[in-house]
Amino acid sequence: MKQQTVKLHPFGGQPIVELDITCTVGRKAHLLQVDFRLQGDLDSIAIPLPAVRPARRDRLWENTCLECFVALEASPAYWEFNLSPSGDWNAYRFDDYRRGMREEKALPELIVTLRREPNLLSLGCRISLECLGLDRQNLAMGLAAVVRSGDGRNTCWAAVHTGPKPDFHRREAFILKSTS
Q: How far is CA 154 from CA 11, 46, 62, in A?
């Protein structure tokens, strides 16, 4: 499995908390493995408690949330995967830039793995590309995070920021490439 690791940066370059966020993505056959690592002063950020029964939930991006965007390289369509440190998740499909948003029902489950240490939070998942019809497609990917500080302020982190304000949906931010 060829892996690519990228570092995420806060929008505007000024984090409200001292963190180092990286994400490693690997693709093998019909699976996409996505692993985020947050290192630093985790006590200064709001980390949702583990859910008793992790499930598909909306609006995870309003709190600390890790996000992966997957797009067909030759199409405006793309998917957004939200992972919460609680274990909750969601997957959305878009027809084009911020248009046609709907839950991706072809993905009935996404198991989020979580490891927490004093200064490390690891969060990952495996996405079935086959059930989405993406297993034989060339893909472009974007990686992002919303980090909520203990005092309730959010910062937006991404591998690259391509506009005048944080916007993870901009196609220019889908900088990782994966061939079928």
A: 11, 10, 8
- pLDDT band for position 15 (cuts 50, 70, 90): low
Overall pTM surpassing 0.90 (yes/no): yes
The closest of 142, 144, 110, 141 to 128, measured between CA atoms, is 110
DSSP-assigned states of every residue in 46-98: --PPPPSS--B-S-GGGSSEEEEEEEETTSS-EEEEEE-TTS-EEEEEESBTT
Long-range contacts, 95-98 (Cβ 8 Å, 24+)? 97/169, 97/170, 97/171, 98/169
Per-residue model confidence as pLDDT tens digits over 17-43? 789 999 999 998 799 999 999 999 999
Average pLDDT over residues 127-142: 93
**Around Cβ 4, how many Cβ atoms within 10 Å?**
15
Q: Please tell me the distance from the alpha carbon of residue 78 to that of residue 141, in angstroms, as a whole number.
A: 9
